[in-house]
Write a structure and sequence with these properties.
395 residues, elongated, three-stranded antiparallel sheet, single chain, mainly alpha, hpI Integrase, Chain A, DNA polymerase, domain 1
Length: 395
């Protein structure tokens, strides 16, 4: 009689005993089980042998028609390389799920509740809500287990989304289905085998030094309380969410540092950004002693205000993520060190190297870092002189 095989092995530095059971023994997939103590492994093997003997005896209780049907089933399954047990388990799993299956609307509600309990960033939840709202319009009343890969592919093909948007939707659905499987709402993730459309890297756009100066000067005319945050976004490269979440007590003028706390960083990792000489000049005029750096924590409100100022300043085309991309590009042109730029921006060096390398000429680099507050600005706050670490003149 075929019996499980026992092997001594080392797992993560610990001595263990592995019990291996082949398909002929399990009737389905190969199975393995690990034990810290050899008597426990031996006991398990004996239990498997006893159970196999009992099941073998039951086979003699089948009548001729049942045995003949089993043989026919095995013959039909042979080309697919799966066992009769695999087929039965798959049917039971799928059939059982369809009987008590949950609709897409129900699973979406549970998923979003889980996201909120899990303390996901508000922006991520908003993105999930947006993507799943579109998904729900197409499949909301359908049972989740009834949706096939072909259904999802047809849904994507019928949309007029760009390739990047389709990839983003599929990323959301991958997370969504992972949650659904963990909760037992379905058994497979149909997104796994959908081929992602190819997305070309689009060249990033930045504002020219003249446009940047015009934007800051216009902001100083329209709303002085917003200029400090705008200057930080331009000359320190903080993300919109980080600028909107920043307080003035996290901007340490004397130490020439900005603290981006883990709770406010996209990566959930604390980082310290240097206040360079150009930014110091602007904060000397527009920094405040306390309160929020910008008057709103709503990213869309902040973005809309910046766009409105840009229009007034005569900027006809606003590049995507212009302020952060501008900092990355001009800072890389200044110091030629992707590791240091990445540390300031909370990015990877590879990302900096791919997007910001060799974009800005020397003349524009000099102009950008020479941008100063308007001459008629109010009296400055006292800020220490530049340090050797951030001596732009030396670069």
């Amino acid at each position: 009689m075929i019996q499980p095989r026992k092997y001594e092995c080392v797992v993560r530095g610990k001595r263990m005993f592995r019990v291996w059971m082949g398909k002929s023994l399990t009737g389905g997939k190969v199975r393995q089980k690990y034990f810290y103590k050899e008597p426990e492994a031996d006991q398990f093997i004996q239990q498997v042998v006893d159970a196999h003997q009992r099941e073998g005896q039951q086979a003699f209780l089948l009548n001729f028609e049942q045995r003949f049907e089993a043989v026919k089933c095995l013959q039909k399954l042979e080309p697919f390389g799966i066992s009769l047990m695999d087929a039965v388990e798959h049917y039971i799993t799928q059939h059982g799920a369809k009987i008590s299956g949950k609709t897409v609307a129900h699973v979406t509600e549970e998923f979003l509740k889980s996201c909120r309990r899990g303390n996901l960033k508000p922006r991520s939840i908003v993105q999930y809500e947006s993507d799943l709202s579109v998904f729900g319009e197409a499949f909301g009343d359908s049972q989740l287990v009834a949706i096939t890969r072909e259904d999802l592919e047809e849904w994507l093909d019928e949309s007029d989304w760009a390739a990047r948007t389709k990839c983003n939707k599929l990323t959301t659905l991958t997370t969504y289905y992972t949650f659904a499987i963990e909760k037992g709402f379905c058994n497979v993730n149909p997104v796994t085998h959908i081929k992602r459309p190819k997305v070309d890297d689009e060249p990033i756009g930045v504002l020219t030094p003249e446009q940047t100066e015009a934007l800051l000067n216009q902001a100083a005319k329209d709303n002085k309380k917003m200029v400090g945050g705008l200057a930080i976004a331009i000359f320190a490269g903080l993300r919109r969410s980080e600028v909107c979440g920043l307080d003035w007590d996290e901007v340490h003028l004397q130490e020439r540092e900005i603290e981006v706390k883990a709770s406010k960083a996209k990566t959930r990792q604390r980082r310290v950004v240097q206040i360079n000489e150009t930014l110091a000049k602007w904060l000397a005029v527009y920094a405040r002693k306390k309160g929020r750096v910008v008057v709103t924590d709503n990213l869309d409100v902040w973005g809309k205000w910046v766009k409105e100022v840009s229009v007034t300043a005569g900027i006809k085309v606003w590049p995507k993520n212009a302020l952060r991309h501008g900092f990355g590009s001009y800072y890389f042109a200044l110091i030629k060190d992707e590791n240091r730029v990445a540390a300031e921006m909370g990015n990877s060096p590879a990302m900096v190297h791919r997007h910001y390398r060799a974009m800005i000429g020397n003349a524009d680099c000099v102009k950008f870092w020479a941008i100063s507050p308007p001459e008629k600005a109010s009296a400055p706050t006292t800020i220490p002189a530049k340090t050797a670490h951030e001596n732009f003149a030396a670069n």
